[in-house]
Design brief:
Rossmann fold; 228 residues
């Protein structure tokens, strides 16, 4: 594992916890409450691929123009070098590929087809919360196994985003089990103070510190201070 090429998440703090970043071809799950900074990390991860002229894709549902624009280097513009896999089943949102999260096989086919044609790139999947709410844990797990097999075959590195607390706990367990790595983000409440914290919950094949660390979102996650 140590000899594998590692891809930066774009957050120096998260990279520090992961001993340099995400090993190529592995799947990292980012889980935590809405608004804590998961999508910011995903944006930075894809933008890192832009600097190296790598293939990049985003599987999403329900993004507005500002959220799509965050993946571009130009404000309020749709990223031209990111393949957009839109999963709502509609026709209004920007997309290069369209599928329907309610029909899970269409999403699996869309992602696998992209990965086969664009080997070795970066992929962000921000539909797992929807999948976990619309489908059974068994169906979500089977879906993940299908796309993860394709990702590994083609050495594509992936970040999955899940909003913790938005689905059945058993569904979250299934998603965590399927992924190589899990980074858990939470809000630490102490009195009237609420502090974002982060830890590595799973890292297949590696030793890691399970402690929580304070996550400095304002400084793009660069400052990591071990929490008490």
């Amino acid at each position: 594992m140590a000899s594998k090429k590692r891809l930066s998440t774009g957050s120096e703090g998260i990279d520090l916890l992961l001993s340099g970043g995400v090993p190529q071809g592995m799947v990292l799950l980012l889980e935590g409450p809405p608004g804590i900074g998961k999508r910011d990390i995903a944006c930075s991860f894809l933008k890192g691929g832009r600097k190296k002229d790598e293939n990049m894709a985003l599987a999403y549902r329900g993004y507005g123009p500002n959220e799509i624009g965050a993946f571009s280097d130009e404000a309020n513009t749709c990223p031209k070098d990111v393949t957009l896999i839109e999963c709502s089943g509609g026709k209004l949102a920007p997309a290069n590929i369209r599928c329907n999260v309610g029909e899970l096989f269409t999403v699996a086919d869309a992602i696998k087809s992209y990965v086969k044609k664009n080997k070795g790139g970066r992929l962000v999947v921000d539909i797992m919360s929807d999948i976990s709410m619309l489908h059974t844990p068994q169906q979500a797990y089977k879906f993940l196994l299908q796309i993860i097999s394709e990702l590994k075959t083609n050495k594509t590195t992936c970040i999955l985003i899940v909003d913790e607390g938005m689905q059945d706990p058993s569904a979250m367990v299934s998603v965590e089990h399927a992924c190589d790595m899990v980074v858990q983000m939470r809000l630490w409440e102490e009195g009237l103070s609420v502090t974002p914290v982060v830890r590595v919950k799973k890292f297949t094949g590696e030793q890691f510190d399970r402690s929580y660390f304070v996550y400095d979102k304002l400084n793009q996650g660069i400052k990591m201070v071990k929490s008490t």
